Amino acid sequence: VVWQDDNVILFVPKAQTSQWELQLMTRPDTGGTFIGNILEAPAPVRRSLDTGILIAQRALAGRGAAMVTSIEYSKRFSSTRTDHPLIYCFMPKLPHSPGAFSETQLRFINGHYPEDFASVCRKSLENRN
User: Fold this and answer.
1) Residue 110 contacts by C-beta under 8 Å, 6 or more apart in sequence?
2) Does 99 have pLDDT greater than 60?
3) In the structure, what pLDDT confidence band is assigned to residue 111 with cuts at 50, 70 and 90?
4) Does residue 122 contact residue 2 with C-beta atoms inside 8 Å?
5) What is the dihedral angle through the alpha carbons of 70, 72, 73, 78, rounded to the nearest 10 degrees?
6) pLDDT in tens, 23-79
7) DSSP the chain
8) CA end-to-end span of the chain, whole Å?
């Protein structure tokens, strides 16, 4: 976990699509229901998403990323499912790892553990304050 609040969690996924990938996901409410798309998100969740997006970009910029691809994974607007969280995926283009940027459709073994990269991101954010 890189950062979290009551509404969202920013983390390094165990099965990364791209090296140094971060994901931002909505958390379930007290009833276990997930916000699955932006239309369902009340103002506090939208503020948390905005904050999480900014923190993700700052953490990746602090590691040297100059360009980041962002993908939103949401449920259909007409879906009544309550078990599908809204997820944003952040995949940086790294100058020393140019191939990782184009590998977003497959899963690859990366040269670092997700927990280690999450720790590096937290330290990068601490250095900005």
Assistant:
1) 16, 19
2) no
3) low
4) yes
5) -170
6) 999 999 999 999 999 999 999 999 999 999 999 999 999 888 888 889 999 999 898
7) --EE-SSEEEE--SS-SSTT-EEEEEPP-TTSPPP-SGGG--HHHHHHHHHHHHHHHHHHHHTT-SEEEEEEE---TT---SS---EEEEEEEBTTBGGGGG-TTS----SS-HHHHHHHHHHHHHHH-
8) 19
| pTM > 0.70: yes or no | yes
Residue 85 token pair: 């969280």
What is the rounded distance in angstroms from the CA atom of residue 128 to the CA atom of residue 102?
Answer: 29
Tokens of residue 123, six digits: 């330290």
Cα–Cα distance measured from residue 61 to residue 6, given in angstroms and rounded to the nearest whole number: 25
